[in-house]
């Protein structure tokens, strides 16, 4: 079971001194972050165990099936579909106050929610194992760590290790952010399973980072609202329409470019504030997995 700590109220105490009400320092094991007091109210901190794709039996069946496929390519595959919840051991810092007004936030379901307001600090060396049976493989781990470093240096969110049966769309606002112990970058983006409008509740702030020693990998997500952002029922936006699915699918690349320009022009109107989110992520202290 996850180790759960719920920090309630308006004051956190650090080193025996209550911090100023304007900002609160939140600790998660050896890590910490500073958040505005209003955001920190009711924050939930958990240490979550690894959730691998395969259990021991399923992994054995997969390996046996793969061995047969090498001999007979027509042999049925036995691979399982991973989910967003499949990830290494990590510390989670969840912010119920940053759920969008009118939208439900379920802390128990946050691990599988790609837009939940949270900071997840992973044991980076175990990302490869999470997509197997949880066992450690040195070669696979080195390969994955190299990919994590490339993701950060290239500022490419599509290289994120998390799995979604969807693609990131409307990637805009790339910005490099340094924190105590490492660095990363943030973007605005949305997961799409098909051509669709940018949508309230799906557009989110995404931060991806890595500690300098490579032992900690960070994924942070916060849903973002912008005045004029389409609701689920909206069928007209920026001169485009979804009433004709085939027509919109063909025009989607043009719409995506228009959305990126629109997001850039309206970034200052986003809520929560991108400036404040950037400041919070820059306040992270993530140096080494312990």
Kindly describe this structure.
This protein is an alpha+beta fold. The chain has one domain. The chain contains six helices and 14 strands. An eight-stranded antiparallel β-sheet has the order 1-6-7-8-12-11-10-9. A two-stranded antiparallel ribbon has the order 2-3. A hairpin with a 2-residue loop joins strand 4 and strand 5. The longest helix has 22 residues. The radius of gyration is 20 Å and the shape is globular. The relative contact order is 0.14.
Offer a few descriptive terms.
290 residues; alpha+beta; eight-stranded antiparallel beta sheet; two-stranded antiparallel sheet; 6 helices; 14 strands; 28% strand; globular
Rg calculated over all Cα atoms: 20 Å
Given the helix and strand composition, which structural class is it? Answer: alpha+beta
- Number of helical segments? 6
Biggest beta-sheet profile: 8 strands, antiparallel
- Structurally, the number of domains stands at 1
Count of distinct strands: 14
Shape: globular
Write the layout of secondary structure elements.
Layout: E1 3-7, E2 13-14, E3 17-18, E4 23-28, E5 31-36, H1 37-40, E6 43-48, H2 56-71, E7 90-94, E8 118-123, H3 127-130, H4 138-154, E9 167-179, E10 182-192, E11 204-211, E12 216-223, E13 236-237, E14 240-241, H5 245-266, H6 274-282
Antiparallel strand pairs: 1-6, 2-3, 4-5, 6-7, 7-8, 8-12, 9-10, 10-11, 11-12, 13-14
């Amino acid at each position: 079971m996850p180790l759960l700590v719920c920090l309630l109220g308006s004051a956190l105490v650090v080193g025996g001194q209550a911090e100023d009400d304007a900002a609160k320092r939140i600790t998660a094991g050896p890590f910490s972050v500073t958040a505005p007091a209003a955001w920190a109210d009711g924050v939930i901190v958990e240490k979550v165990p690894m959730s691998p794709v395969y259990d021991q039996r399923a992994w054995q069946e997969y390996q046996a099936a793969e061995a047969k496929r090498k001999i007979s390519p027509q042999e049925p595959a036995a691979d399982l579909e991973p989910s967003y919840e499949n990830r290494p051991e990590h510390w989670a810092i969840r912010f119920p106050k940053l759920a969008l007004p009118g939208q439900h936030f379920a802390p128990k379901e946050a691990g599988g929610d790609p837009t939940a307001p949270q900071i997840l600090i992973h044991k980076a060396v175990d990302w490869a194992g999470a997509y197997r049976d949880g066992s450690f493989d040195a070669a696979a781990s080195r390969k994955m760590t190299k990919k994590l470093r490339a993701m950060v240096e290239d500022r490419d969110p599509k290289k994120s290790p998390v799995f979604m049966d969807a693609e990131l769309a409307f990637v805009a606002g790339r910005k490099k952010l340094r924190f105590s112990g490492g660095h990363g970058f943030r973007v605005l983006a949305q997961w799409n399973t098909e051509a669709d409008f940018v949508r309230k509740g799906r557009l989110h702030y995404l931060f991806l980072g890595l500690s300098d020693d490579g032992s900690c990998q960070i994924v942070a997500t916060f849903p973002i609202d912008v005045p004029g952002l389409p609701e689920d029922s909206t069928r007209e936006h920026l001169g485009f329409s979804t009433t004709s699915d085939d027509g919109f699918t063909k025009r989607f690349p043009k719409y995506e470019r228009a959305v990126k320009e629109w997001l850039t022009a309206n970034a200052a109107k986003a809520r929560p504030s991108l400036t404040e989110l950037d400041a919070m992520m820059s306040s992270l202290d993530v140096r080494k997995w312990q």
